[in-house]
Amino acid sequence: MKFKRTKMNAIASGVALGLAAMSAQAADQPTLTTAGAQSSAVFTGGATINGGASFLAAVPADSAVDLLVTIKPAAADVGKAGNLVVIINVPGAGFFIQDSSGAFAPWTQADPIVAASSKTLSASEPLTIFSGLVGSAVGATGVDVQAFVGYYTDSIANLTYSSTPASFSIAAPASSSCPANTTAISGTFKDKAVCSLSGRIESDTHLTSNFSYILDGAVFIGADEVSGSKTKLVIDEGTYVFGQQGLNFLTIARNGQLHANGSASKPVIFTYEGDDTATATTSGQWGGIILNGNAPLNVGGGTAEGEGSTGLYGGSNSADSSGVLTYVQVKYAGQNITEDNELNGIAFQGTGSGTLVDYVQVHNNSDDGIEFFGGTTNAKHIVLTGNEDDALDWTFGWTGKAQFIAIKQNTASEHCIEADNNGDNNDALPRSNPTISNLTCAGASSGGDAGFRLREGTSAKISNVVMSAHNAYCLDIDQTATFANAGGSIAALNGNLTLTNSRLVTGCPFSASDGDTFSVAEFFTAQAGSSLGEVDLMGSSGWMNGPILNAISPSIPTDSFFDQVDYIGAVKDSSSDWTAGWTYSD
Question: What is the pTM of this model?
Fold first, then answer.
């Protein structure tokens, strides 16, 4: 349906509009084309349901959407008096221009352009055009919304503007029938009717939140071989996907993508059929999630077969995208393939830097929480709780970046991090070399859990870590190739393997083996800005800094991926607790 003018007026009066300041965003806003007086100006913008963790071209009718835009004026205009312009277009209803009072009035190209606000131009001008717009609430489902923005100095003749709009569509209300490529079955889950996914799906599929969805065995999205556009599995916020007890899992093939578009108030949740009766020791009830990408590995031939015949992964496209995971929970997974082969909560197998991973929790997996098998994927705001092998694992040449990782072990856990390059060829290239900042590794009160195990030739730049006591050790370095890659001696440490600006709890042991080339304890002592001392982790989560930790100065990597925060560890305090509200705890 198309907007009527009265419905545009309902939007203007029913939600907040205007040039409000926009908070820092996690995902890159889509780039818009620049036209007008200053071709070097940059315009970006898009629609988000999760505070900018991801941006959507289509928004569910019942989701609260913000339309965010950023103007970066030409360098010559920064510091000048400027005027900001906002024009909304709703196809079928016409154009509307915002005036200085914040109101929108009908506008045609024959009408004068008026400024929404006047100010001294900064290098970046973040704007919120819409805030909290719910299409179904204002009778605006099934329509498109476009926003053009611009600015001018001195006179309107100097107007610079986005010639392509920041745009999104509001979906029609969800159908009462199971979506395409799913099948209705009897019963309910989380008080919703159930649709089943099975086999290999090679056409786009959209799971709406008015149903729950069961994985019937091994489900594959897309083809193993990459050609043409990728098959997309889109999952709306607040949707449950679950498996029966057994080897039921979801694999995104190399020619597929997973778009799990959760929000803080409505995460996308992957779990098993007994979720309501699960306990603190429940694990390994279903398979897990596997994403196979086309990014580089350091294995022979450049490709590998996933565990449990989960498909081919690896390739030559470091920027490959396997989709988007934002505000996602994965619970109680890790079912055995064989007695010695269990699935990870999420396996990123050869996935590229185009894959967006932000606000993801893996809880009580019976193997690793998250493992990166090569590739270049980056990750932010990761919560790993109660996983029974390693919380975070990597191998086969992972070279991504990660920031804000909160790990809480239980009595069955092994390592917070287990890091490998390649077990068959410790010096294989590209060498595993992630950059990781702001990680908290909270040990269990009993059991044999450990902190970091760095081995098999890996490199890593790890910084701003907080680590509490572990019953086995806090830090271990294994294999001759790992010591050699780090420099071969304490005097010759070369920066390939670092653990800087970090606080480990006093008394937590360092591993020592007869074959070690140099002392692991001396390695830690040599790390810039790192120390042993009191670790005052607080809060019910056990990963929030206390005042002692917050008095320690960080050194955040200067790469633009990393937020320049003023603390070490994953979470500074209750007022900035990014884990609150959307994560699960027993």
Answer: 0.95
Distance CA 34, CA 37 (A): 9
Nearest in space to 291 (alpha carbons), one of 245, 264, 330, 265: 330
N residues, the chain: 586
| Token pair of 540 as six digits | 């019910």
Q: Please report, to the nearest 10 degrees, the dihedral formed by the alpha carbons of residues 562, 162, 63, 578 taken in order.
A: 20
Beta strands at 379-385 and 401-408: parallel, antiparallel or unpaired: parallel
* Tokens 């619970």 belong to residue: 331
- Give strand pairing partners of 406: 383, 440
Report the SS3 class of residue 182.
coil
Contacts of 179 (CB under 8 A, 6+ apart): 195, 205, 206, 207, 208, 211
| SS3 category, 166 | strand
Q: pLDDT of 176-206, one tens digit each?
A: 999 999 999 999 999 999 999 999 999 999 9
Fold for domain 5-170?
Answer: Immunoglobulin-like (2.60.40)
In our burial notation (b when 16+ CB lie closer than 10 A, e otherwise), range 122-157 reads eeebbbbbbbebbbebbebbebbbbbbbbbbbeeee
Residues 6+ apart with CB under 8 A from 45: 29, 30, 32, 67, 68, 69, 70, 129, 147, 149, 162, 165, 166
Percent of the chain with pLDDT over 90: 89
Cα–Cα distance measured from residue 151 to residue 574, given in angstroms and rounded to the nearest whole number: 39
Question: Measured between alpha carbons, how far is residue 349 from residues 304, 317, 405, 432 in Å?
Answer: 9, 13, 20, 13
371 neighbors 307 (Cβ within 8 angstroms): no
User: What DSSP string describes 360-393?
Assistant: EEEES-SS-SEEEESS---EEEEEEES-SS-SEE
- Which residues of the chain are in CATH 2.60.40 domains? 5-170
How far is Cα 216 from Cα 194, in angstroms, rounded to an integer? 12
Counting beta carbons within 10 angstroms of the beta carbon of residue 574, is it exposed (0 to 12), middle (13 to 18) or buried (19 or more)?
A: exposed
Residue 517 CB partners (closer than 8 Å, separation 6+): 480, 483, 484, 488, 489
Sign, CA torsion 576/578/584/585: negative
